[in-house]
Design brief:
Length: 192
């Protein structure tokens, strides 16, 4: 049952043979994280990319004033890491932390590079996932710079409707770039 979620994710964009599936599965590590536990620390290195099987994970950075800024949430069936660190194998700028007890499949950079040469369509999959993530981040930048807090919350609610109750309100506020107090007042005014 556990790999089924992975295959559903991969097969949205590529077709895999049974051999390729077994090869991929043999290269993955399963890891469990407790709520609050870090998958990646800013200043460390993101050696793996994580596929969330159960639970939820967030990526964020802390500014010079000690304020956290949520960049990404990931739920079952989503990939998450400090992408820059993972791709460049350099220093991580984000913390990646479990929001709930979570189980992830880890795929190391070295193994992924090896799999690209054996299963070329896997490179296509990660190209598509990376492109879509980039588009999503561009949309967030536009929303942040051009929309009101209410409009940003509407967009968030539409995207994360089925997950929203699993995310603490102060983290949603951080993701939206508003204070928890403003978010609370704004949420009360919404009509859903």
């Amino acid at each position: 049952m556990i790999p089924e979620l992975l295959w559903q994710s991969l097969e949205k964009h590529i077709v895999l043979s049974d051999y390729e599936k077994s090869l991929i599965l043999s290269k993955l590590s399963t890891r469990k994280y407790k709520k609050g536990q870090f998958l990646v620390f800013a200043g460390g290195k993101s050696n793996v990319t994580n596929f969330v099987l159960e639970g939820s994970v967030m990526a964020y950075f802390t500014d010079d004033k000690g304020k956290d800024h949520i960049i990404q949430f990931a739920f079952e069936g989503w990939w998450i890491s400090d992408l820059k660190s993972f791709i460049t194998q350099g220093e991580a700028i984000f913390n990646v932390q479990a929001l709930e007890e979570s189980t992830v499949l880890e795929l190391s950079y070295e193994v992924l590079e090896e799999l690209y040469s054996i299963i070329p369509q896997l490179e296509r999959f990660f190209r598509i996932v990376t492109q879509r993530a980039f588009v999503s981040f561009q949309e967030r930048i536009l929303e942040t710079n051009s929309q009101s807090g209410e409009d940003r919350y509407r967009a968030f609610h539409e995207k994360f409707k089925k997950y929203e109750t699993r995310i603490p309100q102060k983290l949603i506020a951080s993701y939206l770039g508003v204070t928890p107090e403003f978010f609370s007042r704004m949420k009360k005014k919404m009509d859903w």
